[in-house]
Design a protein that fits this description.
CATH superfamily of the largest domain: Dihydrodipicolinate Reductase, domain 2
Distance between the termini: 17 Å
Order of helices and strands: EHEHEHEHEHEHEHHEEEEEEEHHE
CATH architecture of the largest domain: 2-Layer Sandwich
Largest sheet: 9 strands, mixed
Shape: globular
Strand order of the largest sheet: 14-13-12-11-7-10-9-8-15
Strand content: 15-25%
Radius of gyration: 21 Å
Length: 361
């Protein structure tokens, strides 16, 4: 029996924890949905104060619990590192505060399951902020697939490459990705957990849940502790998918890249997504050969994807409807992501899911 979800009435008030580069994108999203950010907490107070000044956040706190007790928000927006997510969710759950949490939701399945358990026991709602699937081109590709535009898909390739962790002509001193997110230099698990996880989630959104993953990865440059190139072969329900990403590849357009390249082949044609977010559908079967180019509004697509993710959260919270990327759904993305590391380490394909996620408390 499905438990009814109670709508959450306005006004929505939000407290934020973490003061990194996503805070401006989240703050803009909350403004767009008519919510009020009432406080920000970070172990780096100077950064929190800077974010508060820039985005009109009225109160800055050193401690998360102090902020939650002082502001009593409707929602806690977790923008802190993954290692801090479980404690933040537990603090929110203890106070009956709903949660939206940046990906990855946790560094391991144990912590992610504990997050789900804390949310369930407290009766709070928990969604993972997975913004790639909310980019306009992936929403349109899903619409085209659902409409049968290219028939039954059987193959996909998602590939994103740039010089992000290695010096290039445009960034000869500090590589672009390391200047943007300095933590990347010391992260022992880097590209798969930080970025390929997005592509895995997009493939789940488009094709359903994967049944296996085989992964290879390596460290191209000498500026990072973790891998900066990864190649995954994944099986979905009737779809073979190659998922690749590299931040150690020179000779490509300077970052940032708006989108990965994506090809989806079906039994009536193929879909092609360019780095600029433009889609081309080629319908090709006996009796019909034509090209379809959807007219998409790509204005500010990157920040819009954050705002649209938050918009979905706010709409579902207010209406009492399901989150597209709730903790139950995102556990499947995390499971596949962590299984890629296991495959890389063992040299063997890993069957998915690795545990019976629905049977866990």
């Amino acid at each position: 029996m499905t438990t009814a979800i109670a709508p959450v009435p306005d006004p929505l008030t939000v407290a934020m924890t973490g003061a990194g580069f996503v805070v401006p994108l989240h703050a803009a999203g909350w403004r767009q949905v008519g919510a009020t950010v009432v406080g920000i907490a970070s172990r780096t107070r100077a950064r929190a104060e800077e974010q508060a000044r820039a985005h009109g956040i009225p109160a800055v706190f050193d401690a998360l619990e102090e902020m939650l007790d002082a502001t009593r928000p409707t929602v806690l927006d977790i923008c802190s590192p993954p290692e801090a997510h479980l404690a933040a969710v537990e603090a929110a759950a203890a106070r009956g505060i709903h949660v939206i949490c940046q990906k990855p939701v946790a560094p391991g399945l144990g912590e992610a399951l504990a997050i789900r358990s804390a949310a369930r026991q407290a009766g709070i709602r928990c969604m993972v902020h997975e913004n790639f699937r909310f980019r306009p081109w992936y929403r349109e590709i899903r619409r085209l697939l659902d409409a049968g535009t290219i028939g039954r898909p059987f193959y996909a390739r998602s590939d994103g490459r740039m010089g992000g962790t290695v010096p290039t002509a445009a960034h000869p001193d500090t590589p672009w990705s390391l200047a943007r997110q300095p933590f990347m230099a010391s992260a022992p698990r880097l590209l798969i957990l930080e970025s390929v996880i997005h592509q895995i989630d997009v493939c789940r959104y488009l094709f359903g849940d994967p049944t296996s993953v085989f992964a290879r990865a390596c460290r191209v440059g000498d500026r990072t502790a973790g891998e900066d190139l990864a190649s995954l072969s994944m099986d979905f329900a009737g779809v073979i998918a190659m998922v690749e990403r590299s931040y150690g590849s020179r000779g490509y357009p300077d970052p940032p890249m708006a989108s990965e390249l994506l090809t989806v082949e079906g039994d009536r044609g193929a879909l092609f997504l360019g780095r600029d977010g433009r889609i081309r559908a080629e319908i090709d079967h006996p009796g019909e050969r034509r090209t379809l180019i959807p007219d998409l509004d790509l204005t500010d697509a990157y920040p819009r994807s954050y705002a649209d993710t938050i918009g979905h959260f706010a709409d579902a919270l207010r209406a009492g409807t399901a989150f597209e990327t709730d903790i139950d759904d995102n556990l499947k993305t995390l499971d596949a992501t962590l299984a890629a590391y296991r495959s890389w380490e063992t040299g063997e394909a890993v069957r998915l899911p690795t545990i019976a996620l629905e049977a866990q408390p």
